[in-house]
């Protein structure tokens, strides 16, 4: 079982990987655990990433498949963007670390568990549209997603950031549903 190699929950809180501080475990899957990582850019800007930490024992020959698909889908706004990967030693053990765009929110499984009344027809329609857009993009790129499940669909918290300092930066009003 791949999960037998997973490190205890939150045991890397405060550790660093190449200038990134691991703040908190935000999820775990079958082969790895996911931390929110933070990199301070100056005193007022925080760069965030979701860092998937995979024990070397769980790095099978096809471990780069997820990355290869994500790279082919670069720029598709509904797809979480790949930021890079590297090896790391944590508590004396070897891991592969994959850096992803961080989505503040929760996966579809926990969203449905905790937000029952928010699962409206409007939400379901928006979710279906998002998933269909991704399927159209994968089809056009001649790949299959291959792992579309409720843990891989991330529902972003409503985001009302308003960028008005740079003329070329658009207003972002991203709402829910993001796989
Ligand atoms: N980019 C991200 N931003 C925020 N949270 C994330 C991100 N990627 C993953 N997570 C959280 O970590 C959890 C585990 O992700 P992970 O990719 O390791 O496993 P999974 O996709 O749920 O399942 P599987 O092991 O089948 O791939 C997700 O369900 C989600 O809650
Ligand atoms: Mg996943």
Order of helices and strands: EEEEHEEEHHE
> What ligand molecules are bound, each kind once?
adenosine-5'-triphosphate, magnesium ion
Strand order, largest beta sheet: 1-2-3-4-6-5
Q: How many structural domains can be distinguished in the coordinates?
A: 2
Q: Could you name the ranges where pLDDT drops below 50 across 5 or more consecutive residues?
A: 162-179
CATH H level, superfamily name of the largest domain: Phosphorylase Kinase, domain 1
Proportion of residues in extended strands: 25-35%
Query: CATH topology of the largest domain, which one?
Result: Phosphorylase Kinase, domain 1
Assigned CATH class of the largest domain: Alpha Beta
Which oligomerization state do the chains in this entry correspond to?
A: single chain
Question: Number of DSSP strands?
Answer: 8
Main sheet summary: 6 strands, antiparallel
Outline, from the CA principal axes? globular
Rg of Cα set: 17 Å
Average predicted confidence as pLDDT: 86
CATH architecture of the largest domain: 2-Layer Sandwich
Count of runs of 4 or more consecutive helical residues: 3
Helical/strand content category: alpha+beta
The separation of the N and C termini measures 26 Å
Share of helix among residues? 10-25%
